[in-house]
Each structure stands twice: as C-alpha cells, then as structure tokens.
User: What shape does this take?
Amino acid sequence: MTDQNKRIKDYFCKHTTRCTIEGVKKSKRFVGHDVLKADAWDKVTGEAVYPDDIFFDDLLYVKIKRAVHPHAILKDIDISQAKKVNGVVDIVIAEDIPDVRQFGLIIRDQPVLIAPGEKMRYMGDPLAIVVAETKEAAKKARDLIKVKVEELEVITDPFRAMEDDAPDIHPDGNIVITHHLNRGDVDEAFKNSAIVEENRYQTQFIDQLPMQNEAGVALYDERRGVVNIWAATQWLHDTQADVAQSLRLSKDQIRIIQPTIGGAFGKKEDVSVHIHLAIAAMRTGRPVKLCFTREESMITQSKRHPITIINKTGVDRDGYLTAWETKFIGDTGAYASSGPAVVHKGMYHATGPYNCPNLRGVSHAVYTNNTYAGAMRGFGTAQGAFAYEQQMDILAEKLSIDPAEFRLKNIYQKDSITPNGQQLTHSVNAEETIKRVMELSDWKGGRK
Amino acid sequence: MIRKSPMKQENRQMISGADFEQYFQPQSLEKALEIKAEYEDQIEVAAGTTDLLVANYEKLHQIKNWLDLDKLSELRQIEVKDNNLYIGAMATHLQLMKSDLIKEKFPVLAAAAEDVGSPQIRSRGTIGGNICTSSPAGDLLAPLLSYQASFKLQSAEAERIVEAEEFFTGPKRNLMEADELLTEIIIPLTENKREGAWVKVGRRKALVISTLTLSVVLEFEAEQIVKAGVAMGSVAPTPIRLGEVEEMMLGNTLAELDYKKLGQEVKARINPIDDLRGTKEYREDVAADVMVRALNEIERKRG
Amino acid sequence: MQITFTVNGEERELEVTPYTRLLDLLREDLGLTGVKEGCGKGECGACTVIMNGELTASCLVPAPQADQAEILTVEGLGTRDDLHPIQESFVEAGAVQCGYCIPGMILAGKRLLDENPEPTEKEVRYGLSGNICRCTGYAKIIDAVMLAADKLAVEGSDSSD
Assistant: This one.
C-alpha cells in the first residue's frame, strides 16, 4: 500500500468511527449544548479529503462526451479520430457495455450511455466515456468524437408535454405520475364561501449549487472483484444498490466510500460520476478520476423543480378558510429522479400550515427536455409556500383584515389534521412562531 | 459484463510540452513588441489573465502561443508628467484603488476600480486588460471616457495615441491592430476644481458584471460648469460618452440644472439590450434615476 | 518551462506547462489540496491563495506567472495541533459546515486582518466579498473573523509586554 493509499484509509477509518468531540469537555448529552463540529479541525487546516483530493499513482482521467441536442435520435457515433489522441487509454461507447442497465432514484429511466438508435433527452445525456493519461488528452479526445443525430421536437414546457400531439419523451408518455387529494365537499364549500380567490403561480429552476461539483475516484480490485468508488452521495446504500444493479454486479462488489462532501442540498442524491467511474476502472484496471466542471454540473445534475401551481381558495366572512383546490404541474425534466415524490409532496403541503376542511388536489410530474429536476431542500414545499402565502396575503387584503391575524385564525394547532390526514399530536408551535415574529418585527398590522 | 478495454496497454504517451508551441515571457517592452509583430493575432496576450483564463476555461491546452506581459514592470507605473497622468497598462485594479494620486485627482476611476469583481480579481486584473477586452460592461471604461483619457498603442515600428472615445468599436472590439500592444493610459490633469460621481448597478455587490455603470465628472470655474464628462457602460454596444447631455450642462451652475430632466435626456440617448442582467426597459429607467443620484452626489460633495 | 517560487515558506522549483493553472500546480504537483476548485472562473473564491501578499484566485493564474512569487495556502497557516488564531476562531464560532469554502475564507480573513486588525462588520463583509459559501449564510463566518480579530489583538498585546 502506498503512503497515499494509507493516508486515505486512515482518514476514512477515523472519520467513519469517530464520535468523540475534541476541544470541549465531554458531555453525555449533546442536545442543548454547544458542540464543536468534529471535522472542523480537518477543514480549517485543509486536511479534509474531498473526492477531488484523492490521487493515486497511475491515475487516469475521465471525461464524458455529452448530448449535442436536447431531444434527438443518435444516428452514429465516430470515435476513430478521438482514439488517436496521444494519451487516450480507452473510449467506451454503448456497444462496449451491452448488458449495462438503466438507473434512477425512483424510476430507472436513465441510460448509462446512449446507443445509436436511442434518444438523447437532454443536454446532459452521456454518449461516451473517455479515459486518458491526462485531463488535456481526455478533453481533446472528447472534443474529437463525431456524432450524427436526427433532431426531434424539443419540449421545454410541461404543458406542451401533456398535449396529445406532443412526442413521447419516454415510451410510457410524458406524465410520469399523477397524484390526487380529496377531502370533504369542495364544490359545496366554495358555493358557501364569502370570497373565492383563484391564482396561478410559477416557480423557476434553481440549482442547489453546492460548492463542490460532483467528483470521484474509482479503483477496481480485480482479485476480489470489488469496485471501490470514492464519491459523494447522499444515500450511500441506495447509490450502491443502483450502481450494482446497473452493472449487473452484486451489492458486495460495489463499495461506495463517502469522502468529505463539499455540500449537496439534494443535488447529490442522484447517481452522477459513479457508474461511469466503475466502468472506466473495470475496463482499464487502473485508478480513474472524474470531476465535473461547474458547467457540466449545471447541465447534467438535478435542479429544484419549476412548478406551476393553480390555487383556488375560499374563505368565509369571519376569515376562516373553507375550501382549497390546487393543481401542481412539476417540470421534472428529462428523467424522473425524485420528481414523482417532490411534486406530490408539494401538493400535500398546498395549504401550508393552515387549517382547511375541504380539499381537492391533483399533481403531475411531467417529462420535458430540460435538465432533470430532483431533490432540493424543502422537497417541493418551498414552491408551494410561495403560492399559499401569496393566497393568504391576497385573501387578507380582500377581507380587509391584518394578514398576520388572518394567519393566526387559520394556523395549525395541536390535533389539526394535515391534507394527507396526519393528526398533529405534538410540537405544534406555528402560532407561537407567528406571534414571536409579530413581536420582534414590531408588527403594525401590515398597513403602510 | 464489463469487458477489459482492448486499448489498455498501448498509446500511453502523455500530452507534453510539445503540444503547445511557444510561451513568451519577455523582460522588455521592446522584445514584447517584436514578438507581437511576428505572431500578430496568432498569439494570446496574457496580462492579469482574469478574462483570458475564463474565456479559455477547459481549453487552455489549445492555446498555441502565449505572450505574457507579467515581467514588464515598466508597464505597472502610475506617474504624473507634464500635466498628464500616465498609467501603465499592466497596473492592477488594486493599484488604482490604492494609489493616493488617483484617489485624489481621479476619484471616480479609483471608485470604479474598487467595484471591479472581488479582491481576488482586483489584485490581478489590469487596466490594460479591462480596456483591451473592450466589454461594454468593463467597469473602468466609463470613467476613462468621462476623464477624456487617451491610450498609447505601440507596435515595433510605431506608436500612436488614440482617444478613449474613438477606441471602442463594438462589443469586445476595438481599433487595435494585430501588431500593437496597449502600453499606457494618459489622462489630462486640470487646474480647475473637479467633482465626480460613480454608480455601478448590478445584481450583487461583488463579483458581478455590471447591469449598468455611470460616470459623471464635472469641472468648475467658481460655480460654473466649464467641462463635463458623462459616460455609461452596459447601455450600448460599447461604453459611450453622452456629449449632448454634457453640452446641456456647460455654462450652468449646479443650481441651474434640472436633474430630473437631465436624467430623461440620458435615458433618451442610450441604446441598451435585454439580457441576463436586465431588460432594456429596466436599464433605461435606472439610467435616468442614477443620473439624478450622481448629480445629487456631486452637489453634496461640493457642499 | 521551469519556474521557481516560494510556497508556505519553502522554495520550490518545478517544471510547468502554460496550461497548468497555479491551482493545478498546488493541488496536483505539490499535494496542497486545501486549495479547492469550485468554479474555475474566479467567481467563488474556493481556490483563494495569498500571492505576493494579495488575495488571488489560483484558478486564474497560469503557472508561469507564479514564477518568483511568494504563495501562502491554508496549509501554511497552521497545523491541527498548532492552529492559527483565525483557524481556531472558525472552529469555535461554528463557521465550518461542508468546509469547501473554508480555506479560501480563512485566507481572505487573514489578508483582511493583516491590513485592518480591527475591522467593522461591514469591512469584514467587503474583505470576504470574493468568497462564496452555500451552507452557512455567512453569519458565523463573519463572527469567526471578528473573533479572530479579538484573539489577535489580545495576542498582540501579550507579546508586547
């Protein structure tokens, strides 16, 4: 074992087992105490090892040739010129890995490499894996790969995707999943409401933008048949399982080793570098490294869903919510990722922390040719919050009452029931929160 | 199954120094001009490289020839000679914002330099680079126009002085010839009392390409405005000087000026586009507002 | 081509190509991986080093321009057992989360305090304006630099006794 390898091994042993706290008096209880972060010392000295910081002697560099069009059939891929670049060790295209299966967090709809005859569905789709002695050689070879495509209609709007004559991005159609929500008698309640307010809200793509881009190193231990992958992930064992099934290996043949992670915020839930690294490591028998550029990370990996939210909200003369009808159309981009969960979770929170007895909702996660959307802090609820808080402000204005008072009237209390039927039995302090905000901000009723 | 790569054992020669041709780091301007004359536009000129390395990110290995001016300390001088200020093209933004001479005589230029990028960019980026990149959003350009600066362009054979106002011909285009280097920026001093204001509008305070910049410099004899320099960035294909607006101010005192009307005059004379940083409409409205703000600031400074 | 420069007090002589950035040189040739790449375009500050006394984005410096330079990276500031007061302050103020921006933040803080030992919060914000953090929301990072200023002031008065 080289020194470098030993250093890495020591590092991970230390970090996966350490649970004591240095620098402060040990305490049996952490809750309610100021606790210094155990890894802060490594991070302020530059010792912490992030995926990109791992080097091996004999390391090869990987670059990915990506889609040339957001929606097109790959007709032909020519790697003959690229192979001639000095320093290129391997170029992998779909025909080299015929048995490899698709992957994905919830629905396995993402191809490892696009084969001729198959479709690229967004600009991040991988066409070839280039492995070379240097980064420059890998880049040079990647840029020499020639591709012929047949262009298809590019769908960037989920409403277009849902039309009957829109081309199917995936074989089963463009609506990934639909969820419904029903409680009480919404139509009757609207009829009896003093005011009914209907509005349409639109949120946009947001990149989670962790400081570190997706990066990783892999090493194939041929003697034991184990691929070691040092790369960031948020769901270690799910990533392991997904990589294993994709490569038709058993789970114990894939070791995912989590180095220090340079931020994630949901973006690193999806498989990014892992499968390509494993393939490159197995084919070359040498350690391999793949680091995304910021641009590549932006184009390739998940985003916060843009969601179109249509809210129709009824309220009685006393300022109590009577009925709420909502529609969530989430643009999940080219692949499902966490989309099916994110969009319906957003819908279940459509009324926010406010009691409403009658509810009706529908949500669609829809495929488009945009970069796929997945998990990001809040998981769909941030989009919903924008829409329901606007509804509350608009209704308060129509009712001519203080928007804070209006919220207090409708706020969740202990034993309130959420739209999906959960009874809140403890830790319900929304009312306290609003009152505290009013106090701290010296609230004067929201009037100018 | 994943099969072993058939290519594995061959073709292991690395990219080496032979893949690029030349990296020149001349020790004298004379030598630099000789190299530029030989390679003309087949060579990348490297000053502070804060634009060059961004434009060539992931493609640096494709640059064949480099002309690195880093060792030309003669181009980093800031000095006064014969009633002119001379700034070497390799002077950094940090140098400009720290120079007592510039802070005292050309505060608008110092303020603009302080608003460029971030500390990390200002310590490396140069005034010459800002000028030669010729982005309509270059932060130093509007102040240079309003101070009526001129640029010294040198080739191995000759040299010429070009007015800043004439220099910029389009977005990232200027009238430099392929064998020329920008070596010096010349700004006239004045006996008159001069007052100015600098406004940069952007989405953040730091590390932001300007949505719009405005530089106003007025020269007074007693209370009367005898010379005016009003220039803007990011509102047209090049940084522009608003001569007609300047004319309207000449001969007046500040008290006689209708700030609001001048703001509208500015708005009427710019030609911005919609882009990521702002819409045409937004830029036009803001241009009118910041003109008023700049004049208020000048009035306040004059007390 | 050959360059000579001083890194963390040690003189180094290295063979470089023009397409090597100072960032690559420090990370790959010298193993100073405390210098991070976040964007490669001078926008994020993760690759910050102090070069000839000034904050510099090492991703925007072609290696040949580092010839004769004096460079400080976070590794040259203090070690685990002997932290620099700024590093100590970052630990104590809880300013470190994912940690990827931290080496750059610490160097920006150091550069600021070298020039201005008693900064206001506004001056700290300006001093750190070239460094992006996505975890903390900056509040604790600013606390850490203010805390470091206090520590250094006490240290300074001790040594003058």
Summary: Residues 139-160 of chain C form the longest helix (22 residues). The interface with chain A takes residues 19, 27-28, 31-41, 44, 46, 73-75, 77-80, 83, 87-88, 90-92, 94, 96-103, 106, 132-135 of chain C (CB under 8 Å). The CA atoms of residues 49 and 73 of chain C lie 5 Å apart.
